Amino acid sequence: MAVLAAVALGAPALTATDAWAAHGPSGTSLYVSTSGNDHNSGSLHKPFRTLAAARTAARKATRKGRAVHVWVRGGTYHLAGTLTFDEADSGTASAPVTYSSYPGEKAVLSGGRRVTAAWSADPHNSAVQVAKVGAGLKIDGLFVGGTQQVLARFPNFDPNTAVLGGSTTMATLNARSAAWKNPTTGAIRGLHSSDWGGNDYTITGRSNSALQTKWVGDNNRGGDVDTNHVVAEGIFEELDAPGEWFYDKAAGKLYVIPPAGTDLSSATVETAELDELVRVEGSSAAKPVHDLTFDGFTYTETHRTLFDTPYEPLQLGDWAIARAGAVHLKNARNITVSRSAFAQVGGNGVFVDGYNKGDVITRNRFTGSGASDVQVVGSTEAVRNPSTWAHMVDPPTDLTPGPRTEDYPRDITVSYNSMADMGRFEKQSAGVNISMSSRVTVAHNTIHGSPRSGVNINDGTWGGHRIQYNDIFDCVKETSDHGPINAWGRDRYWPIAGPSINPSAESDALQKSYALLDVVQPITISNNRIWHNSEWAIDLDDGSSNYIVKNNLLLNAGIKLRDGFRRTVSNNILVNGSVYEQISHRDNDDSLTRNVILTGSPYSLTGSDPAAAKYTVDKNLFWDNDRPVALPDVWSAAKLDAHSVTADPQFTHGSPWDSPGMTDYTLASGSPAVALGFVNFPMDRFGTGTAGEATPPAVTWPAAPVPDTVIQTQPEPLMGATVRQVYDKATQSAVGLGDFDGLYLQAVPSTSYAYGQGLRPLDVIREVNGTAVTDRDSFWTVYNRLAPGSTVTALIWRAQSATTVTFVKPTGAQQYNNTAGVTYTGAGWGWRGARAGGLNSFQDDIDATTAVGDSFSFTFNGTGADLLTELNADEGTIDISVDGVFRKTVDATSDTREYQKTLYSVSGLSPGVHTLTGVMKSGQYMIVDGFTVRS
Fold first, then answer.
1. How far apart, in whole angstroms, are the C-alpha atoms of residue 157 and residue 243?
2. Were 301 and a residue from 110, 266, 286, 326 both cysteine, which residue would form a disulfide, CB within 3.0 to 4.6 Å?
3. Closest to 386 measured CA to CA, from 370, 368, 403
4. Is 291 helix (H, G, I), strand (E, B) or coil?
5. What is the model's pTM?
6. What does the pLDDT average to over 491-504?
7. Which segments of 740-798 does DSSP mark as H helices, in order?
8. CA dist., res. 388 & res. 195, Å (int)
9. pLDDT tens digits for 227-242?
10. What's the CA gap between 141 and 925, in Å, rounded?
11. Is the pLDDT of residue 8 over 70?
């Protein structure tokens, strides 16, 4: 018998004889053909016309205890409705039921219809072709020659633009919509306001020169949209580019601008209308469909679920989902979906929903899915004290570990699948998304081209997953603050304190005791190769707990551990990546051992106290191509990395600095990392293993380190706290912001004045007395002018939400850094950090100029002020003025260098706002180190 097609995935050849021999002479073969007839017997020579007819015949055979194999001959089957299967369609372990494409032939299941109506030129625009296809149809996609076309949109689709294929602003859409006769045919797709996935809207009308919209999804963090990244589609007036189309539902007319060189009258033109092609659903978890296989099909032309299916928030992760898929499994057991192609489906590819056990999704090829390729999502009915962002259960009242009901997937395998370019429409998408499930294995998949993650674990319920031997790259293309493998753990315990803001020992201990109520089995991420072009390839975000991360090759990025417990990170290779510890709890049981980390800064800490967290960190190897490697200052006191070394790891295939495209990172037997206990792991088992499969890009090494010249990273004092700009993505992620605006409170000692006034570590000041704070200067410009003892109202970003803190500005003498709202005039000025000349100065930084005539101005509210500077032989004289009136010329020369010296003082000023100004008169340098202000 002929060989059954393997859909080009490198699967071992499986013959029909192999697949069928086990069933013996009692097995029943049925056949379906596009040229068949449902009144036929279903034999090879008298096949059925539809799969529905074959299903009816298969049910009769299974009632006799026979194994059934339905062979579907090549051709396209435009389904009139979703093909449904229930308990009556079940097989058994010894007599399963199989639906498959016929050996060597391509059977296509389509959710649309063939357009057979005649095409004619639109009398108003000869570039547009029109066909009367009938009114009231549910057309949401169009394919010409098997290629998906673009729904009329503004701006036009640009395949070379990653975000939304090109985007514009809401202001532009509002203005442009004045020319739209009926905007309610359209929709708006955009990004979340913090670019944490997508947000989408239907257009309900237009009034007051603006579009009126209704939010439909797909984000779990609210309907805020990034108004600078939106696109409008489904608008007739925007039909203006080759490949675009529009369906007038009321008139029943389909308008198309054909792709260049395409004659629609001879081309295959098909619509997309059905949400789902195959739905397998038992009546309950106790009565599942079982032992059923779908093999070798092509699934295509399904309706997008964005605008016609309700979105459901998933716990406290960032995801909301439409429970729909081209293949939908619910209340099912031992269902296999194999060796098939999911070609440009409108929503999810496979949805494993509620109770499922033992299902296998293997050796499929997913390309261009509108949402995620595979969703494995349980029901909230199975969750004890389920929380969402709109309703958090705090504290949990049910402290029983594990699930409450059987309505969740378990023992699911997603393996050897090729997954590319998913999330074409829904930006909160992944190759595989897991939520409210247990023991899901995601193995040997090649996943790339995602706008968000490759594999997403939305919550900890209920753990036991194994994410292994995958090849994941080119992800987080359209969004931010995410990883190719991403996880959240905002389960029952998390609402107790949320992302902890200087929590007490008692609250940390309480969270720790609750952390494993839901993630009852550890989740293992192992033996994956992950390439990423940002900070973290594995992002264990808010509260992710009970993880084992081992034997991973991480290219161009590192690992984030944020706000959780019991994460074991060992035997990984991080190439141009670091470990990011964020918001660590006390006694969090994290362990970082026997890793090879290739960078100059192996660790990044934000809101993390290693001494309190009591990490286990040791026997790691660091290397930065023979450049210095810097460990955090607190490392020694906490006795971390006591036995770690900085040394060449000695890879057997060379140096990644010399060969950035290197893929084999096997260590020589004499490697110092091996001496520390590192164990080599296979470098040739990532992904599907299929010849010709896509592979990750090369590592992109940064330029050699330069002295610190980035002023945004400079800390400065505020009321006994330490503040700086948000600036970097690590801080942005730790505080949960979608932008870099605000003044970040890096440290707020409990003994400080700031703490007593209600400010806390990890706060971000976003407004002060109604004025937006975008950077440090926008804060100090307002704050410096406020009278000592006056009330200050600050809008604070805390625990990923906005709150207001009112405090009193101190009345005692206060010190201000040279970065605190000082105006520097002239071309010679430059800021210098500790490694560029600022060391030993106040806050280890200075501003300095080399140009005579340059000046500085510092505005303050008080009765006096001191100028701090550096004295040395190369300094000179400075003309000092107060409130525009010259006071005196001061001399900063000294035979020896002296730091933090008071060069000028003024006292006895009337209470209020004053400005101290200095102009360089002579010398090689004029230096500003800081100021003291007296009330």
1. 10
2. 110
3. 403
4. strand
5. 0.91
6. 69
7. 753-756, 776-783
8. 20
9. 999 999 999 999 999 9
10. 67
11. no
Any idea what the Cα angle at residue 887 is, between residues 893 and 894, rounded to 5°?
5
Give the confidence band of 511 by pLDDT, cuts at 50, 70, 90: confident
Instruction: Look up residue 540 and give its amino acid.
Output: L
pLDDT at residue 787 is higher than 50 = yes
Structure tokens at 810: 């101190």
Q: What is the DSSP letter of 203?
A: E
Q: Are 686 and 530 in contact (CB under 8 A)?
A: no
Q: How confident is the model at residue 708 (pLDDT cuts 50, 70, 90)?
A: low
The Cα 128–Cα 140 span in angstroms is 19
By the 8 A CB rule, do 400 and 457 touch? no
Cα 617 to Cα 639: distance, rounded to the nearest angstrom: 9
Q: How far apart are CA 502 and CA 551, in angstroms?
A: 34
CB burial of residue 432 (10 Å; 0-12, 13-18, 19+)? buried
Residue 12 has pLDDT above 60, yes or no: no
pLDDT score of 7: 35
Closest by CA to 545, choosing from 531, 566, 530, 528, is: 566
pLDDT confidence bin for 738, thresholds 50/70/90 = confident
Cβ–Cβ under 8 Å, residues 472 and 502:
no
CA distance linking residue 113 with residue 77, whole number of Å: 9
Query: What is the Cα 763 distance to its own chain's centre?
Result: 23
Helix or strand (DSSP H, E) at 278:
strand 278-281
Average pLDDT over residues 715-741: 92
Q: Quick one: tokens of 719?
A: 């009321």
- How far, in Å, CA of 341 to CA of 300, rounded? 8
How far is 548 from 590, CA to CA, in rounded Å?
10
Contact in structure between 425 and 394 (CB atoms under 8 Å): no
Q: Tens digits of per-residue pLDDT, 407-424?
A: 999 999 999 999 999 999
